Amino acid sequence: MTALSVSTSSATALRADALVIGVAKGPKGLVVAAGAEAVAEAFEGKLTDLLATLGATGAEGETTKLPAPAGVKAGFVLAVGLGDAAEDGFDGEALRRAAGVAARTLAGAKKAGLLLPAESAEEAEAVALGGLLGAYDFTAYRTTEGGKEPVGELTVLTGRKGSKEIKAAVERATVLGEEMNRARDLVNTPPNDLNPKSFAAIAQAVGKEHGLKVEVLDEKALTKGGFGGILGVGNGSTNPPRLVKVAYTHPKATGTLAFVGKGITYDSGGISLKPAGHNETMKCDMAGAAAVFAAVVAASRLGLAVNVTGWLALAENMPSGSATRPGDVLRMYGGKTVEVLNTDAEGRLVLADAIVRAGEENPDTIVDVATLTGAMVLALGDRTFGVMSSSDEFRDRLHEIAGRAGEQSWPMPLPAELRKTMDSPVADIANMGNRMGGGLVAGLFLKEFVADGIEWAHLDIAGPAFHESAPYGYTPKGGTGSAVRTLVQLAVETAG
Ligand code: BES
Ligand code: MN
Ligand code: ZN
User: pTM for this structure?
Assistant: First the structure.
């Protein structure tokens, strides 16, 4: 794991493999960003020309290596593009992405100094977070020699001597980055190793380490409690399901948040089996539960004055002689009945049980997070999650909170007329309705299970949870840590 530190010592004196500086596209060509002054001086006024000669333009994602000039102790200088230069500085996302690209480029190095703009706490937090996220790599299953390890140590260099705010900002970034990376690890762990039982065991061990109260309902307890949704999805697998409660409490808290995560450790579709081409990435179907767990741990590490309870609805969706059939009726936790028309619409079944259970404890707010529908990916693409809620106000607020946290989201409606497309002749509701607007239909299904008087929102992260194409900015291939920052930001703003 990459270590993150902050230092006000002189950049030229830093003993490291590399110094990272920022460059941007100015109106008259490449400009060197703030923070790199000492390095520019060591190049005796030739830095901009040198970079231009090497073809650098300052474009976002661009990297250019230069040998270190005399007087600089580091081995080489890495210039990373920030995109268009703006008069009022760079926004957080530009800094996070540039730091991320730099950290990824520096895989294999032992130590690097980040000389990107870091005068304000906001800037320092962005640089630190981008660096930690960009350095991430999932190496646990690689045995071949010669594979590069993530950069060992990243030092954020700032001119603000003795600033408490900068130190606190880098500490916040460390928690957020490490917890997003925890969620990524959980998502990337192959489903033959991450199953409901092993996920629950991780939650218990990590929860203990961070002062959380963790309770696990195993298949016996779930049967006794009448959790028909979670059991119905899990009963086709030799890996039995679990419902995990992870509670963080603060003595001065005035509000309580409940986060509910879809934790399908593998989604084969069940008897409504997914065809090849649709199942290769379905280990990512527990990304909601991973985000929820990581967010609760982060709330605890940050000591936020708010109570946060996470509910992880864990099951493996497999076909077998004991699997739920299309046509079966499940009796959900709390008593509602559901006709299962498609066993591949399993996420809403495990979430329904967990949402009812979460509601029994009377939280002010429930936010569920799920890789719920392919329809949401079709609607919003693979970098934006959908936000739905029974309250337009809360939906819009969460969308804004996500934006402040640096995540792309979009408010989606819950059109009432779609509810009747889930009418069932035999049960209270079917688990499938209109294919058109399928993401909204899924949202309307979940809404049926939210107790009156509780504020509720649903985040469909099916698009951004798992990144399949080339890495960009601080986003690697595979698990991304989607929704962690949004949940933590909601907790921060609830704590006040
Ligand atoms: N886990 C999938 C949704 C998904 C699709 C996540 C692509 C990530 C990427 C979910 O369980 C599912 O299969 N949904 C079905 C629902 C349908 C049968 C009503 C879907 O979206 O096709
Ligand atoms: Mn499915
Ligand atoms: Zn699924």
Answer: 0.98
